[in-house]
Hints:
The protein is an alpha/beta fold. The protein is built from 11 helices and 7 strands.
Amino acid sequence: MSLHVETSGSGAPLVLLHGWGMHGGVWADVAQKLAVDFQVHSVDLPGNGASAALPETNLDALVQVLSVRFGEPLSVCGWSLGGQVALHWAAREPDKVRRLILVASTPCFAEREDWAFGMESAVLEKFAAELEVNHAATLRRFISLQLRGSENERELLMLLRERLFSRGEPDMGALRGGLDILRDADQRAELQCIRQPTLVVAGERDKLTVPAASHYMAQAMPTARMVEVAGAAHAPFLSHAEIFVEHVKRFLHE
């Protein structure tokens, strides 16, 4: 399939994976800063941006496409849903994914009886229903939730809304499949198998993937550590780009 990837810089390869309903362009500012030290690959996941859609969107299918596209060992940075994809990739191909960065991510997005750090199922079901009625409005609402409480919230909201459809509208099948992953995926059992050095980045004010979920991941993974960005919500790489880049560079240069 056709996977759209924007590459910049030179050095050790670093793949950036975006969140639900977005595309690789969301990383533009951060990618430019990281490209000073690394060869940065900003990916449009299948069905998003300029990438063709898959017949079915699930974690295995997404990882398979990424694995085919990138043949050499690399580091992977995933935001939100992209973090769940990155985590699954690291578990499946530990020899390829050398280092892992999980940004505002969680092993289990939806709340469960034994998992209090997830979104209520009723809220996710409402998103799924609203998606079928007006997908554009649903995506804009999701963006608002991501940035709620963040420093510079208004400016960031304008930026993300501007970028949302800058590469065209996402495929409905990809949007549905992404919501299914958020609703159904529970990767807690995979965490102890992730032996790669891992940096977990959380936003102090994140209401979607609360910092407690990031603390859980960092403690469950054998070689992980956590950074909590003060004043940030669900997009610390946008609201606090300099701090984010500094932590990522320091981690990848170790």
